[in-house]
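Page header: ASSEMBLY MODEL / two components / 575 residues total.
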Amino acid sequence: MSSTVLTPADDRSRFQQSPSAPSLLQLVRVELRKSADTRAGRWLLVAIAAAALLVVGLQLFFDDGVDGSFAYFFTASQFPVGLLLPVLGILLVTSEWSQRTAMTTFALVPRRSQVLTAKVLAATVLAVLGVLAAAAVSALATALTPVVTDLEAGWELSGAQLAQVLLVQIVYVLVGVAFGMLLLSSPLAIVLYFLLPTVFTILVSTVGALDWVQNWLDLSMTTIPMYEGQLDGQGWAQVGTSVALWLLLPLVVGWLRIQRAEIA
Amino acid sequence: MIAIEHLTKRYGTQLAVSDVSFECAPGTVTGFLGPNGAGKSTTLRSLCGLATPTSGAATVAGRAYRDLPNAGRHVGVLLDAGAQHAGRTGRESLVLSAMVLGVGRSRVDEVLELVGLAGSPAGKRVGKYSLGMRQRLGLATALLGDPQVLVLDEPANGLDPEGIFWMRGLLRGFADRGGTVLLSSHLLHEVEAVADQLVVIAGGRIVAQGSKAELLTTRGTVVRAADPTALEQALAAAGIPATAGRSGALIADAEPEAVGRVAAAAAVVLVELRPADGGGLEELFRSLTGSTDTPPAGTAPAAHQVQEARA
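Prediction written out in full:
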């Protein structure tokens, strides 16, 4: 039976002058809003800012090694951001399943890769915002240095450090997104996100023969120089291989699974 | 305009939906009926691109759901009222959908008003909503994009009688303005008041399908006698086919007057004589839904008969 015959003209014409699909930019805005419009999301953002403040505050008052430079505070303030922001990345994906909003999300945007791309981009924006927040906190600490210590404030920051810090934060938040996509469960993804790399590090560092594994596949080790902008030629290759294992692999597997899975 | 064509969905060895075909025309409400686990939700998920059929197709206005450029502007979908973020307010849930659909905030206020959640309920977190309020919020989400087609899975669940009455009016109005409505239910009486067309599914297959008039028209006569055997013999002698009904009654394929005359001629005392309920759909539905709605035939009525026999 042909549907053309049975469909009244007005029905069909409405379909033809159909409103266009939401742009990727619009979907990214939606995802960013989702990450902050629940209590869990809001408190996580507050916790990240508070932890960054706490870290530079402790340094300012109690750290003997503090040199009053912006770069020093900037490096240190990245750790709380890098620790908590990936959780936001995980929840960006897993809350759709734990709260079952995936049904609404994918009914509105049936091309699932559009939604997943928007989530990846939104997480990237969050990482940039996290670095900016850390920079603001660091600037505050730098400005206060001459006031609370007898050191002078130093405002230099190398372009390499800024770029590598941005990159490492983006990598970590996307590892969170990838774990979320692979596991689709908030508690499971959060626990494994923190547990797996730690177990991995302990394993490869206790077994001497596995040194090369640590050098090439342990993301927490390969990215250490990035916080100070000191990654060199081989370092880039080692970051590349560890990113392939911890980010690309779960991302690709999770992505393909979500595209094929039944949403219920 | 919805068309489901030879839709089959298999999970491993289990056949959830088998060769299901039906169409929903603009201006009509289609009731998609069946017991829990009959394949209703799987069919609707396949229609909305959330499940991929093993074979067959489901289209809206001739297009696969996934090919609709802005799906929510064509098809309003409510598949599970529980599938909403408990931590968001009702209004926030709608604002997120409105951003995807590209409709303004004023539309959010309109649908909140329409479903009766305007004011303070809109500002409450969904976690504090009753199931009825979640259904209303789900319906608001479905209506947000001003679609021409509505696909609703068990929308009456959790609504109070007044809410069900309200929803019927809303869906009827939607269809009367040229919209297409497909709604599922496991309760016949929930949809028979509003549906123009009924599709009954059981065990993944369609077991009855047609306009409400066709499926629910009165046919035959329910007759119960003090002496059922005598009545059966009298009807057989008169050439009126009869089958066993519930509570010892017979369903005779004739007008009540004809049945009454046969009984009078044979001097059989009748205790009940009335036109049968709609076309056997109710009976069919009861047999499909099993013991959930009614006590299983044969137990309680049998005990009743024994008491009657003693008296």
